[in-house]
Amino acid sequence: MRTRAWRGRLRVAVGVLLLLLAAIVATAQDEQGSGFLRKGTLDGTPDGMTETEFKAAFPEYFPAQGSRVARPSDIPDIFGPGAVLSVGDVFMKVTNFGFFGNPLMNVSNDPSGQWPGASGIEYLNVSGFAVGAVNPLATEPNAIRRVSSITEWRPPTLDPKDKMYRSYDGALNGVRFFNDDKDRHLRDDGIYRAGDPLIDEDFLDGRDNDLDGLVDEDYAAIGQQTITCVIRDDTQQAINAGGAERHIPLGLEVRQIAWAYSIPGFTDFNVVQYSIVNRSGHVLDSLVVGGLVDMDAGPVTASSYWQDDMNLVGFPSCELPYMTPETDKRRQDPSMRASRTPRDVPDDSSLCTHRNLRINGFSVVDDNGDAGRTTGIPTFLLVDHTIDPLQIPESSPPMGVTGPSRVGFKAFRSYRGNEAYMNGGGPRTDQQRYEFMSGEGGTNIGGDGFINQDRGADEKGDYQAWWSCGPWLAVPDDGSIQVTVAFTVAPGTKEAADQFASDYEQFKADRFPGGSGALVSKYPSLSNAYAIQVASEGIYELRPEWPWLTNGHGRETPVSPVAGEGSVTASDCRDQVPRTVFSGQADWFDFDCDYCTGAYDSRRRGGLGMFHLPWNSDAPPPNPNLNVAAEYNYSDNQSRIIPAGDNRVTVAWDNISEITPDPKSGWLDFRGYRVWKAANWQRPVGSAGPGDSDWSLLGEFRQFHYYDTAGVLQLRNYTKSSPAATDSVCPRRFVPNYKYPIGSEHCPSGCVDSATVDICLQLDDLWDEQSGQVIHAKEIGCVRELDEDGNLVCDEVDACMNGRPYCSDPLNRERRTRYPVGRYQLVDREVKNGFVYFYSVTAFDSTGLAQGRTMLEGRRTATESDGVIPQGSVRERKSVWVVPNPYRGYRNIADRPSSWDLTPNGSDPTGTHIDFMGLPRGKWTIKIFTLSGDLVKTLQSEDAVNESIRTPIASPVPGGAAVPGYNRQQDNPDDGQASWNLISRNGQDIVSGIYLFAVESDGGTRRGKFVVIR
User: Fold this and answer.
1) 260: which of 9, 68, 484, 727 is 20 to 30 A away, CA to CA?
2) Phi/psi zone of residue 98: left (φ > 0), alpha (ψ -120 to 50 degrees), beta?
């Protein structure tokens, strides 16, 4: 999606920046007593960071006197507009700084964890990430047991490549479990053999991870929005981070993937997956993973809204059955089993009719719902982590030989923010963190593996929590473990949530009416969590080309001798005698004694294992790329289609939606586009962009692209059976909202009426059935890429036609070409110069057969940096005028005649502007004076307009420097309008009075005056 690294970019002297920071800190201290953060939880202390601590924590941001100032792309993605998951209903900021959420509200206006959408109702302050371990090689006592926590994680280098990356499920080179680049293993490597495909080996991070000369050529994207990054705890910036104690790194690399869905039933949660890799060069022992979670529920307009939350420890933790769908090969029913195989189940039964899903989570809730505004319950879930199925007998809690044998918390504690560690509060030193995370100081986890902390009296407060999972023993160098968490919000109240514990006890006693289905339906938070676990479980399906498939029912674990071993002998709970695996071979074992893990079809010739597809879900086509998006609509983009015109906006997009196969079916199932517009947005406090209720539909455009019964692609919608090449007869259709052209015989002066008209369409044209409007697919150059021989060729996709079951048959496949932004264009003339408008184009599909046909659509979304402001044209006449004049700056925005005013925020402290109209062509300078002749402000045609909400753009030339991502006052040669926010050159609001101005250009000087009333 959007690439927006930060708002407060370094483009002024460090001295000025320090003054700004001092002002921010002073403001925060005035409002909250002390500290830099909106509330002090980022470093685990109750008062947050002081100015000195903040500078010490960011040495690359505040360099020593005389040293080089870091470039914008060098800074961790916490400043200004950053990476926000926004395709679902939970708008959540993701960073490459050891946490998700946005606790640093004074340096970024991004939503932290708002729901639903950009509502201004927050449910998350921060979720920090921590990893602890024992370093057996450490010689200093204080270096043996260390924890790398939150801001001790940094991007791997200061190279601009080490940033946040965006993608989506089905993206080119990003198809999960698919060999996008067709490369192979070169040599035997344990289970992998020479010639086996290399799949998803190049993590999406802008680097050549597999050293094949290509970058991000085969990675795994997931969800309708994917944000990835790499962080480490051993960079110089991490080591130099200021804090309560010296940071001693463990030598860890973390590959972080965050994703969200836009499909029904999946929109109320976001998922974050951490792959922790040991890069220390030696073994790390007793590794634990966890972190701080501070969920706050309330509207950002309310002062200290986090102080009236109530604690819901353990809600909605439970274990519930999940019935295996009939279509899931995990069932391994009699049709998949040879006679008497296996021998411990009846011949006529399935091996996996159901399995139990464990939900591990905790929540908070607002005490009274804030008069109906705070209607949700935020929940943090531990969804999955690496397990060792080879369980140690009679271990309690269940423990494998090298790590946990089931997913669950190791330790948990919830507390109010000012409680000391020894009294149950949060840990503040590495010693305390590791003691807590390893469970040495108590776990608050019961025998069933779920949180059992006593909630105590129902008291309001700012509740925070620490959690952990693990430990993993003897993690080798380059070894890795994976942990997946989720943040979710669902409707609910404290009164309802308080009933869950007793209802669950009734369910376990088989006395809850309606069973598990009724329990899930009663609690939306549980329904959300259950849906997440089901999605995580995924399905088993037939994929015979997959190289690593089990060789027996229930066998989930491959075993192969390590390098230097001639053989290894092992047995599982199904074996009569142990099995020996020799060097160069691999065998599979059922270590967890569970037929639901490891599905196998013994009736197929030679036997065939089933492929496990986790996070299996449908997906709409990705939304197209737009010319109104911030990363496209910037003045220095020489190839752009300019959106802002004189009382008009041109919306243009590409055809990426049409050429992206559905990641689940593999079909090209695209059907059409919906074009949305948001007007009259006034930037409510806490809002990052238009909310769901702000959007209105401009039109639904379906595509003319189909094959006849003979499999021939139709180039036009002819009505005759054998039309001539020049035939122009088109189908006549009744259009309910057809608008006749002004001056036609039907409407001499212009009117709107229904009509029956000719609809003439060619291949890939779009048309709106309600209005009759046709958007013709423009004949433009294709997007080009290098082929294997280094030649530039059109980027094309070859995939299965929608609804065709046998994609291996060439007759069931089609090839489509990718075109850039501009393939389709729509002009909106219902706009006014100087006002901000937002546009979103969503793609929808039509997939499935007969009664199973469904339609999925992407989410409409935009942020403030994507706003478009129509601009008046240049004027050759002598006069330049100001709008509005007079300007009346009443305190209440609704009372101002200048109805384009927005609510002020950190990047736009006035929220208002006056505009100079009728400016000349070419470069100009505007000087504004008081009546006494004092210079108030100077504006130039090259000045930036929205620099505070735009990030630099990667160079369009490979290897080139980044270019400015903002719009200039003179955005294009026809732009004759300039804006001023009424801030003087000294950084102060101007006062009431009469002001004079002079416009200097090659065409001479034009003068005028305006009035400000405040």
Assistant:
1) 9
2) left
